[in-house]
From TrEMBL:
InterPro entries: Methyltransf_25, SAM-dependent_MTases_sf. It comes from Phascolomyces articulosus. This is S-adenosyl-L-methionine-dependent methyltransferase. One of its GO terms (molecular function) is methyltransferase activity. SUPFAM superfamilies: S-adenosyl-L-methionine-dependent methyltransferases. Keywords: Methyltransferase, Transferase. One of its GO terms (biological process) is methylation. It comes from the Eukaryota. Residues 1-30 are annotated as: Disordered. The keyword Transferase applies. Residues 136-227 form the Methyltransferase domain.
Length: 361
């Protein structure tokens, strides 16, 4: 990447650095989590104790997946070679958040408010009443969506699933909110037909191509008939790219492919939903400018915040990418600076796609 990037950025080498910052903070909450979660499996592995995990594994091994009309019933297969491998992986992935994680939580929080403002809501799924409803947030991250939903819908129960727990101030929060550490690609720790709404956002770079359908099948299993899912995912490439951005994205595509992720997932999701048995209600695109190039004032605001989140994303992934691509740190910084300018020059924008679907009654 070094040579190609350098060529692309040579013509702008003297460009000035853009230094803008905005911060968003979340007020600390101080309630204890004590909601009614009868709809979660008894054996749910909410702690790291070996007994808890063994119990959850034993229960999962005994449970047959329930079938729906379009789903083939396959006998349960052993998922890992050994229990040691299981614990080793858990120990690594269930580690406490690092400093980088906190920087990423900050970026995700900013993006959360951006999307909430642009969508004028935390969810587009129509809801007559949230009383006694259960919502699940898949890959909850810093937990902000789950936290806000629990706060707005006091009579609903909200559950955030993630391989890591959110930062402490979001953990001890509302009595109708609970977070569970779990791998979303394993069987979810809840019974069939227990959930009214499943929300998933920004997870495409954690779902391998081959995992999409299985994940949607698990969502189908835990949803009540008539229950909904809402997926909100960002295209991995930005639109209207300039030359440096284009070069950057070629490498990004290779990176996704090496990780067996699906760079073109947005063309595939509707088909997966239908194959699994969902009734697709709507697929809606949401384009958000990157930069202050729009004339319209609200879009300009969104563009400003979106550019900050893009900058933070590239900064947060810097070490990983320079190691991977073998480029000097100054080249990476310069490329990021150029990309920021290209967003303004070429009128770059991000495209989010929202899929809303129902499990038939
Ligand atoms: C990009 S963040 C998205 C967070 C949140 N959905 C949002 O939009 O703000 C991805 C999250 O998925 C979690 N994650 C990744 N792989 C996972 C897995 N296999 N099971 C559970 N969570 C996972 C990560 O820990 C991280 O919090």
């Amino acid at each position: 990447m070094g040579n190609q990037t350098s060529r692309a950025i040579d013509r702008k080498r003297e460009s000035r650095r853009i230094r803008r910052r905005s911060t968003v903070t979340l007020g600390a909450q101080s309630h204890t989590s004590q909601g009614n979660y009868n709809w979660i499996d008894e054996n749910t592995a909410t702690s790291l104790s070996a007994n808890g995990i063994n119990a959850a594994l034993a229960a999962a091994a005994q449970q047959q997946p329930s079938a729906h009309p379009n789903q083939q019933v396959v006998p349960p297969q052993p998922r890992r070679k050994s229990i040691t491998e299981f614990f080793t992986k858990r120990k690594l992935s269930f580690s406490r958040p690092t400093e980088e994680d906190y920087r990423e939580y900050d970026r995700l929080q900013r993006q959360h408010y951006l999307l909430k403002s642009a969508r004028k809501s935390n969810s587009w799924v129509p809801m007559e009443s949230s009383a006694d409803k259960t919502f699940v947030d898949v890959g909850t991250g810093n937990g902000i969506w789950a936290l806000e939903m629990a706060s707005q819908h006091a009579q609903a129960q909200v559950l955030g699933l993630d391989i890591r727990l959110p930062p402490e101030q979001n953990l001890a929060s509302m009595k109708n909110l609970r977070f569970i550490r779990t791998d979303i690609h394993e069987r979810w720790p809840m019974s069939d037909a227990a959930v009214d709404l499943i929300f998933q956002r920004n997870m495409a770079n954690h779902i391998k191509k081959e995992q999409w359908k299985t994940l949607l099948e698990e969502m189908y299993r835990v949803l009540k008939p008539g229950g909904s899912i809402e997926l909100l995912e960002l295209d991995p490439c930005h639109h209207n790219p300039g030359p440096v951005q284009k070069t950057f994205e070629e490498f990004s595509r290779t990176h996704w492919e090496e990780l067996e992720l699906d760079y073109d997932f947005s063309n595939a999701i509707k088909g997966y939903l239908e194959q699994v048995g969902f009734e697709v209600i709507e697929q809606r695109q949401l384009d958000i400018p990157i930069g202050e190039w729009p004339e319209e004032s609200e879009l300009k605001q969104f563009g400003f915040i979106n550019k900050e989140t893009q900058k933070a994303y590239l900064r947060n992934r810097k070490q990983e990418l320079i190691n991977k691509w073998g480029i000097p740190t100054e080249d990476y910084d310069l490329a990021v600076q150029e990309i920021m300018e290209e967003f303004e020059e070429y009128h770059g924008f991000s495209r989010f796609t929202c899929w809303m679907a129902k499990k038939p009654l």
